[in-house]
Design goal:
Layout: E1 3-10, E2 20-31, E3 34-44, H1 53-59, H2 63-68, H3 72-83, E4 87-90, H4 93-102, E5 111-113, H5 114-121, H6 130-136, H7 147-166, H8 170-180, H9 188-191, E6 228-230, H10 238-244, E7 251-255, H11 258-266, E8 271-272, H12 282-291, H13 295-310, H14 330-333, E9 347-350, H15 351-359, E10 367-371, H16 373-382, E11 387-389, H17 390-398, E12 401-402, E13 407-408, H18 413-437, E14 443-445, H19 446-450, H20 453-476, H21 483-493, E15 500-506, E16 511-517, H22 521-528, E17 535-538, H23 543-553, E18 563-565, E19 576-580, H24 586-595, E20 600-603, H25 607-622, E21 626-629, H26 636-645, E22 649-653, H27 655-661, E23 669-672, H28 683-692, H29 699-715, E24 722-726, H30 730-734, H31 738-743, H32 748-751, E25 754-757
Parallel strand pairs: 1-4, 4-5, 6-17, 6-18, 7-9, 7-10, 8-9, 10-17, 19-24, 19-25, 20-22, 20-23, 21-22, 23-24
Antiparallel strand pairs: 1-2, 2-3, 11-16, 12-13, 14-15, 15-16
Helix pairs in contact: 5-7, 5-13, 8-13, 17-18, 18-20, 20-21, 27-29
């Protein structure tokens, strides 16, 4: 076969609206020593329309390059002759092929998509974007998002994939071969090529890490039920908490998400406990394999088989990466009943699984340890049923059949296309009516909506119709995707519910429905009723904030009277703090970056401020290092992972962006261009303030301090060297003693130079 690795840089993702800005390809041949490049081509094309600055920033293509380039039509004949009969290879090559066909190119229809291959060759890898894969394989990729560089990178990644496959056992290869024989996959020929790689084959069966590998040691505490433990800045991670209780049979550690549980289990710090929908069923997998016929079903079975044969644990499928593909098949291979087992040592579960354990009164003899109270409060606030988005509805339908890739249950193509059109129509109606009748509002509360009977009735009736359509689709297809639940919750939004706060958040191209509880004490009491009072790990050192949090959770019993700090042997970070009492200009921020070390995080008060700064200074910033910007550099997960793997990088974002991701970055420099304040006009914040203001007169200031502390936990790490904090409003946001508040933050008081600039 004639293999051509190809990549396009585009002005957007709609072939009807957007253009091809650059095309690069590299032909290659398989040889016994690997994949050998035989010919390359790269060309920028002059577009007809204007190109958005964020596209120029992402690709690195300059306006000067575009202006001096030929048009695509001028190069059409040459490109067609070269690629017309080739097997196109790429990372998510379906997008590139769709664009080429839309622009009139005739293709062979044969493709090798490395995004398909990584699904089953690296089933537990945390990120499938090309830049991250290059980092994983330790391959330099300085010109990411340029067409030829990415085309060459794909060849390198493909070669690594083939090497990984060559390291599989004969038994696994045999089972994979039986599956791939059911469909004509173009990449099978490459996998069967008799390579003689000189690459060192990695050990695929990864084991749990011994606890002796940790540099941090924590004095073993045996806290009583009802104790409060304060976890200082720089140690907001579950590993530290797990170290405290390591080896103890008395405790059940409750953490925000299942990935944390897997991490603790893998490190040998705790045994994971999971819900039935996460527990692997070998019988169900074998049944699914027996009937797998479509390309998507086969690839998912390959993914599950590789996971089963190469993973360090095969009890729970939590570490299987479902982020891009496979979620629709989860229920086909999981579903073992939850059981209380006689485990030794510390147990760990996530918040959702703890809810299931509580309902069945499992592990009552263990003392629950809650990490951390503020994240637990946020989880209770949001719950699992409070956020309904346009994209989520589209995702649920595309999990059945995706018209963009032609993947899924093709026999249900018609009904899914009708559903997708209905979803687009509904949310377009929402945006149109809300923009027309509530112009200028970002948040429209349930009360505002209900005071406009015309809008309320139209949206309510349309939601009911959409819900009925989802029920009809669910009854027609075999899928584990919960469409009816989305429809039920959408209908419920328009029902009057006491003690709930409801609003619609309006964006330029989207609307999000929220439905959150005002009071959560009842939920907390129900969750912990089968157990002794929980040990609380709190990330707040501010006593007033902690007092509010305990009252909100209903955990301020007299027994909660023991407060401890973690005894860490790890050296605290040395932080220099510069507090500047004026609003920063762009030049102030640029000066901070030039005077400090990378990686750096610059935080703005709004997404629009990120946009303005990025558009104005991208060219200057890219000379300093890799630039990642909220809303400009891909999805949030991709941005944060790529920022983390590039040492000389700059991240432009808002505080909400970082807090929402619940991530821990470790930059050397942080610039905060204004205090991260809670929006007092937000419907949920407003409802909470109205209820708590009598008991906590400084409620909004406590909220602001809590938000600042959450932000600090996101960026605090041992490499941290300088924090620049700009604001003109310290007194109103934090109170008269704001200087003392800053000095009382751990490590700043004794370890930092404290200066005030003008």
């Amino acid at each position: 076969m004639k293999y051509c690795s190809l990549d396009l840089e585009l002005s957007g993702f709609d072939p009807l609206k957007n253009e091809i800005l650059e095309l690069g390809f590299a032909f290659f041949n398989p040889t016994k020593n690997g994949l050998v490049v035989t010919e390359t081509y790269s060309q920028v094309f002059r577009p007809q329309g204007e190109v958005h600055p964020k596209i120029l920033g992402l690709t690195g293509i300059s306006r000067e390059e575009l202006a001096a380039a030929p048009t695509l039509n001028e190069c059409r004949e040459f490109i067609q002759e070269k690629i017309g009969d080739a097997v196109l290879v790429g990372h998510n090559i379906a997008v590139d092929a769709r664009f080429l066909e839309a622009f009139g190119f005739k293709l062979s229809g044969l493709t090798v998509d490395t995004l398909d291959l990584v699904q089953f060759l690296l089933p537990t890898h945390h990120s499938y974007n090309l830049e991250n894969l290059m980092h994983y394989f330790s391959v330099s990729h300085p010109e990411a998002h340029r067409a030829l560089a990415d085309a060459k990178a794909v060849i390198t990644v493909l070669e690594r994939f083939l090497s990984i496959y060559s390291g599989f056992s004969d038994e696994l290869k045999q089972r994979m071969g039986e599956l791939t024989s059911r469909h004509q996959f173009t990449w099978v020929e490459l996998m069967q090529y008799p390579f003689e790689f000189g690459l060192e084959k990695k050990n695929l069966l990864e084991k749990a890490v011994s606890t002796t590998a940790h540099s941090a040691t924590v004095s073993n505490l045996m806290p009583k039920p009802g104790s409060v433990i304060v976890q200082p800045l720089g140690q907001r991670n579950a590993e530290v908490a797990a170290h405290m209780f390591e080896g103890s049979d008395q405790y059940l550690l409750i953490v925000p998400d299942k990935q944390m549980v897997i991490s603790l289990w893998r490190q040998g710090l705790a045994k994971g406990v999971f819900s039935p929908e996460d527990l692997f069923s070998a019988d169900k997998l074998n049944q699914f394999i027996a009937g797998a016929a479509t390309p998507e079903e086969i690839i998912f079975c390959l993914k599950a088989l590789v996971w089963l044969h190469t993973n360090w644990q095969t009890e729970a499928m939590v570490d299987l990466n479902f982020s891009f593909f496979g979620e629709q098949f989860r229920s086909m291979v999981t579903g073992q009943p939850m059981q209380e087992k006689d485990h030794e040592g510390l147990l760990a579960c996530d918040y959702s699984t703890f809810k299931r354990l509580s309902e069945q009164s499992y592990y009552q003899t263990r003392i629950p340890v809650l990490w951390t109270t503020d994240q637990f409060e946020q989880w209770l606030n949001a719950g699992n049923e409070s956020r309904l988005t346009w994209n989520r509805a589209l995702y649920l339908l595309k999990a059945i059949y995706n018209p963009e890739t032609d993947w899924g249950q093709r026999e249900h193509k018609s009904i899914v296309l009708e559903g997708l059109a209905a979803v687009d129509l509904y949310f377009a109606l929402v945006n149109m009516l809300l923009t027309r009748h509530f112009s200028g509002f970002t948040y429209i509360s349930y009360e505002q909506l209900s005071n406009n009977p015309l809008v309320f009735s139209r949206l309510s009736q349309a939601a009911s119709n959409l819900s009925d359509r989802f029920d009809k689709i669910a009854n027609s297809v075999s899928s584990g995707v919960d469409l009816p639940n989305f429809g039920r919750l959408l209908k419920m939004f328009f029902d009057a519910q006491p003690d709930r706060v409801k609003w619609i958040e309006v964006h330029e191209t989207n609307s999000v429905f929220f439905n959150q509880p005002l009071h959560i004490k009842g939920q907390v009491q129900a969750l912990f009723s089968p157990y002794q009072a929980p040990v609380l790990i709190n990330s707040q050192t501010d006593q007033k904030v902690m007092g509010y949090m305990l009252e909100r959770l209903g955990l301020s019993q007299p027994s909660l009277n023991e407060t401890r700090g973690l005894d860490l042997n790890e050296k605290a970070a040395q932080i220099e703090l510069s507090v500047v009492s004026h609003a920063p200009s762009d030049s102030d921020i640029l000066d901070c970056l030039k005077a400090s070390q990378l990686p750096a995080v610059v935080l703005f008060q709004s997404p629009s401020a990120v946009k303005l700064f990025y558009d104005a200074h991208y060219n200057a910033l890219k000379n300093e290092g890799r630039v990642f910007a909220q809303g400009y550099s891909g999805g949030s997960n991709k941005i944060l992972r790529n920022f983390a793997i590039n040492k000389a990088s700059i991240l432009l974002a808002t505080p909400d962006f970082l807090v929402r991701q619940q991530t821990i970055l470790k930059p050397k420099t942080v610039v905060i261009s204004g205090l991260p304040e809670v929006n007092a006009k937000h419907p949920y914040t407003k409802a909470l303030a109205e209820y708590w203001i009598k008991e906590f007169p400084e409620f909004m200031k406590l909220q602001n301090r809590q938000r600042f502390y959450q932000l600090m936990h996101s960026v605090w790490g041992t490499p941290f060297s300088h924090l620049y904090l700009f604001s003109t409003d310290f007194d109103n946001s934090w109170g008269e003693n704001w200087e003392q508040y800053l000095k009382e933050i751990p490590h700043l008081k004794e370890k930092s130079a404290y200066t005030t600039g003008n």
